[in-house]
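Researcher: Let's do a round of design. I'm pasting the structure tokens now; please hold your answer until I've finished.
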């Protein structure tokens, strides 16, 4: 990922993250959490150690998606588990196999770095992503639930 791509990607990713967080918290709190999370997990932007930000292009060179993978588990910092922070496919290219291809590329990057597992979080309302992960062999390892009152 180039610097100009990074700026565009993180701006859009933060907005999408805020939208998802706003399902469970006030919008202002969601914006603050998105800002804090980026500062915590990507303190040096593209130069952040043990993090890779990838751009996926189709055969004609059009950007079809992005991925952000950390080459260590974010809480324990163990390197046997890589962490998928984000994967996205541009709207016109969804449901065309690009998500699966991007995920396979992320898995290859993680494997090359020595990881034996790839972990991730997914919002419960993101049915397309959950379906992708399930069909690619991912299992639920933890689950949170809530009910609006």
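Researcher: That's everything. Go ahead.
Model: Designed sequence:
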């Amino acid at each position: 990922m180039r610097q100009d791509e990074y700026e565009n990607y993180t701006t859009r990713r933060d907005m999408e993250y805020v939208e998802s967080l706003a399902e469970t918290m006030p919008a202002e709190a969601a914006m603050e959490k998105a800002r804090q999370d980026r500062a915590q997990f990507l303190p040096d932007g593209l130069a952040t150690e043990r993090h890779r930000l990838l751009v996926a292009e189709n055969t004609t060179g059009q950007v079809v998606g992005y991925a952000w993978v950390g080459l260590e588990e974010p809480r324990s910092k163990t390197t046997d588990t890589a962490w998928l922070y984000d994967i996205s496919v541009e709207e016109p290219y969804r449901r065309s196999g690009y998500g699966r291809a991007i995920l396979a590329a992320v898995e290859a990057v993680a494997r090359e770095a020595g990881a034996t597992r790839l972990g991730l979080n997914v919002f419960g309302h993101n049915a397309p992503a959950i379906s992708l992960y399930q069909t690619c062999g991912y299992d639920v390892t933890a689950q949170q639930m809530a009910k609006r009152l």
